Amino acid sequence: IGENIQLLVDRPDGTYCFRLHRDRVYYLSEKLLKLAASVPRESLVAPGTCFGKFTKSQKFRLSVTALDFLAPYAKYKVWVKPGSEQSFLYGNHVLKSGLGRITESTAQYQGVVVYSMADVPLGFGVAAKSTQECRKVDPLAIVVFHQADVGEYVRNEDTLT
Amino acid sequence: KEKRGPGRKARKQRGAEVELARFLPPEPESGRKKLSSHGRRRAAKRRLGAGGGPAARRPLGGGGRGGGEGEREPTGQTARGRSGFSDSNSKWLAPAKAKKTQPKGNHVELSSDGEVEEGWEMEEEEDGSSEEEMVDDYGASSSEEEELLPIEKAALKQKPDREGLSEDDSEEEEEEEEEEAEEASKQKMGQKEEEGPDLQLNLDIDEQFKLPTSEEIEKEDILFISEPPDLHVIHQRIQGNMEVLQDFGAKREEGRSRQEYLALLRRDMAAYYSYSDFLLTKLMDIFPLPELVNFLEANEVPRPVTIRTNTLKTRRRDLAQALINRGVNLDPLGKWSKTGLVIYDSTVPIGATPEYLAGHYMLQGASSLLPVMALAPQENEHILDMCCAPGGKTSYIAQLMKNTGMILANDSSAERLRSVVGNLHRLGVTNAVVSNCDGRQFPKVLGGFDRVLLDAPCSGTGVISKDPAVKTNKDEKDILRCAHLQKELILSAIDSVNAASETGGYIVYCTCSIMVEENEWVVDYALKKRNVRLVPTGLDFGKEGFTRFKDRRFHPSLKCTRRFYPHTHNMDGFFIAKFKKFSNAIPQAQKDEEPAVEVAAPSTVPDTIVTEPPPKKKKLEASKADKEQKLPQPALKKKHSLQAQRRPLKA
């Protein structure tokens, strides 16, 4: 979402911040932060919303739970046809045949937010091909790598936190 | 032993058509209104055999019909009503002339008792004869002195051992008839005994309206072990028993106490509905008998699936539209809820639609919406939800607060917290902090909340329809343990609230159980121990809580609490109580003021309905003593110290 990060931090109703707690990054308002601080650390499970986690090799993986916050600010969006909506929700990558729309000038390997045709955010992905290439490629080629989708709420309930 | 013929059941199973074919050509009878198979058969009989003239039968039949009595005879028995049995059972069926007079006498009584059983019996019979027809037959039989009862007798004869037999419609009918007759008159007893020793066991059962003696009960027990209990038999016995108990003066048997009837009823219900005796005893204390049966029946059936719209993300109307488009059959929940929807059926799994995944709604029981509605959280408040898993109520609180303010969602179980986190994230709740403390630690961890919701862990007797194991695995110790935990939790909850908050100072205590020990008792305990009072929950439906129960007397304000039952409200059993803390409690800061607080005797007794505890010191001691009496727990000490810290200042 690029420079829209600023919008996430300075919200009209108070400053929000990111906090690291046990390898996960949480997003919460400062008021909430004060409260969360008083809970003993072992007991604290989730202050605010989890945005992602640092993996063992210290890579940052964005989590689907951040979807609602990032979706409005996403600069690169991909719309998926109803037919392959379900397939994406099961964790599959998006094929060209399922691609509805894509924002112009999406670079390759750009992080994107995947939407359904009804503008309901479905998850995150990585563009496998830039917009120009998408036009040229055959229908069965992967255009968006699946990274996170809302189906995970049901599939991976345990690992969400 | 009577030789049994091919068996009435065999005959019945072949169906009415077969019988009809056997008896008569299908000729409509003139001068009669609707003639069903029954009527046609009788017409054929009339043509066939002699017996009492049709004329004699009609008026009696008419009279009987006017009485609206239930027909006991299976349709097949009409044939037997005649002196010369024309059906295949004539070999072994013989009308007992000796009993002709009595049945006539019983006629009227039977008819009055028949009402209850009638519908049931009509289900039993595979031939759905109209009542009219049956009445006809009834009249016919009595006119021919082949009354109902002789037919019963005849049927009795073929039943050597009712217990051991598999369900036989006719047997049930007879039993039922007999039961009713029993209630009506005791002559049956004599009649039955005439039948002979082979009916000995039959006596056991019919006895409910003649209570079996203890030996007979033992006999039954042995039979129960050797063969599976005959559920129909038990069911009828239950019904008969209840009828007797409801009109005990008239229908009881001499020399049998109410206790014995109740004991048998309990045993039967335990066997029929698979409850433990302990639980059934408790339930019998709470509910009057007819309601008890409704309650037990309601627990066999699951409650309808309900969902709650997540107003943070969508509107109820839009959600309903979207779900209907997916093929879900739903309806708004009721006037009392603006966000609930009840699902009747659906082609797609409700827990997996894209709307669910997008967080537009949450699967939640209807009764779980109520405590949050009672809590009425306002925006920008600090709210504590102890025992929040799986997060339905917490998210509802958040949506009512529109993600402002702050919620501390706590649960003592880490695995269940995962579902809380998942749900909160999915539903887009941003103002929640999730923690994993024991609820009893609360005021120490963090206090000064505006409102607290305590959905206490309970025995689950209100949600038996979701978890039938509760029927048998709860006993006295479990209930008491739950109650103890709930008492500790509620005190912690009360202590965590800031009574001086402008918008709040409320605690809502709720459980999904219907036991008085867990509900009213705990509430009463809280009233005695803390400066709180009960306020109306704001829910205008639901049954009021008990103010007295058996030998306990509760505070009169308990009328403000609400109980919900599966059989009356079609939601899980629930209990909700809303407290207001009226004295200015200053959380953690109380430690400093402790000496002053303890010394100061409360001069102003709050002008509320709370039963006033003695001055604080005594209260401390009393509560200490109280605690000693209860199950010793390590938490006791902590509680004691908490109490010392938390002595609220009297207003």
UniProtKB/TrEMBL annotation, chain A:
Subcellular localization, as worded in the UniProt entry: Nucleus, Nucleolus
SUPFAM superfamilies in the record: Pre-PUA domain, PUA domain-like
Source organism superkingdom: Eukaryota
Record GO terms (molecular function): RNA binding
Any one cellular-component term (Gene Ontology): nucleolus
Keywords: Nucleus, Ribosome biogenesis, RNA-binding
Start and end residues of each PUA domain: 76-151
GO BP of this protein: ribosome assembly
InterPro entries, A to Z: NIP7_N (IPR040598), Nip7_N_euk (IPR055359), PUA (IPR002478), PUA-like_sf (IPR015947), PUA_sf (IPR036974), Ribosomal_synth_fac_NIP7 (IPR016686), UPF0113_PUA (IPR005155)
PROSITE patterns: PUA (PS50890)
Job description of the protein: Required for proper 34S pre-rRNA processing and 60S ribosome subunit assembly.
Family: Belongs to the NIP7 family.
Protein's recorded name: 60S ribosome subunit biogenesis protein NIP7 homolog
The organism of origin for this protein: Hylia prasina
Gene, per the UniProt record: Nip7
UniProtKB/TrEMBL annotation, chain B:
UniProt feature, compositional bias: Gly residues: 49-67
Alphabetical keyword list: Methyltransferase, Nucleus, Ribosome biogenesis, RNA-binding, S-adenosyl-L-methionine, Transferase
Region annotation (Disordered) ranges: 1-202, 593-651
Compositional bias ranges of the Polar residues kind: 75-91
Biased composition (Basic residues): 1-13, 33-48, 636-651
Active-site residues per Swiss-Prot or TrEMBL entry: 512
GO molecular function: RNA binding; rRNA (cytosine-C5-)-methyltransferase activity
Segments of skewed composition (Acidic residues): 112-136, 166-182
Binding site for S-adenosyl-L-methionine: 387-393, 411, 438, 455
Residues of the SAM-dependent MTase RsmB/NOP-type domain: 295-582
Signal peptide range: none
GO cellular component terms given for this protein: nucleolus
Localization annotation: Nucleus, Nucleolus
Gene Ontology biological-process annotations: maturation of LSU-rRNA; rRNA base methylation
Gene3D superfamilies to which the protein is assigned, alphabetical: Sun protein, domain 3 (3.30.70.1170), Vaccinia Virus protein VP39 (3.40.50.150)
CDD domains membership: AdoMet_MTases (cd02440)
SUPFAM superfamilies: S-adenosyl-L-methionine-dependent methyltransferases (SSF53335)
Biased composition (Basic and acidic residues): 154-165, 183-194, 620-630
Domain of life: Eukaryota
PANTHER family: 28S RRNA (CYTOSINE(4447)-C(5))-METHYLTRANSFERASE-RELATED, NOP2 YEAST -RELATED NOL1/NOP2/FMU SUN DOMAIN-CONTAINING
Family: Belongs to the class I-like SAM-binding methyltransferase superfamily. RsmB/NOP family.
UniProt name for this protein: NOP2 methyltransferase
Organism, as annotated: Setophaga kirtlandii (Kirtland's warbler)
